[in-house]
Write a structure and sequence with these properties.
By secondary structure, the chain is α+β, with helices and mostly antiparallel strands. It is about 35% helix and about 25% strand. Pfam families: YlxR.
Length: about 90
């Protein structure tokens, strides 16, 4: 019997993806926002697809700024971290 694949909705595209294809962004009780590559940190989680084009398009449309009610200066490092993690995963493992 096939195992059920957990799906999550990407906040950039509003599409459902397997959880493994997404990065988790967490807002904790101190109202800090950070990227959680492990998917296990405490806080309210939102998911972003690991697709550079969609992340760059979302940055232009200020999707995270609207979602979290923060300024672009606060969320600029979040976009950078998402992009850095996407590039890191594209490198073949030896």
């Amino acid at each position: 019997m096939a195992r059920k694949v957990p799906l999550r909705k990407c906040i950039l595209t509003n599409e459902m993806y397997p959880k493994k294809e997404l990065l988790r962004i967490v807002v904790n009780k101190e109202d800090e926002i950070f990227v959680d590559p492990t998917g296990k940190k405490n806080g309210r989680g939102s998911y972003v697809v690991k697709d550079l084009e969609k992340v760059e398009a979302a940055r232009g449309k200020k999707v995270l700024e609207r979602k979290f009610g923060k300024s672009g200066e606060e969320l600029g490092p979040i976009y950078d971290e998402i992009i850095r993690l996407i590039y890191r995963e594209d490198i073949p493992k030896r």
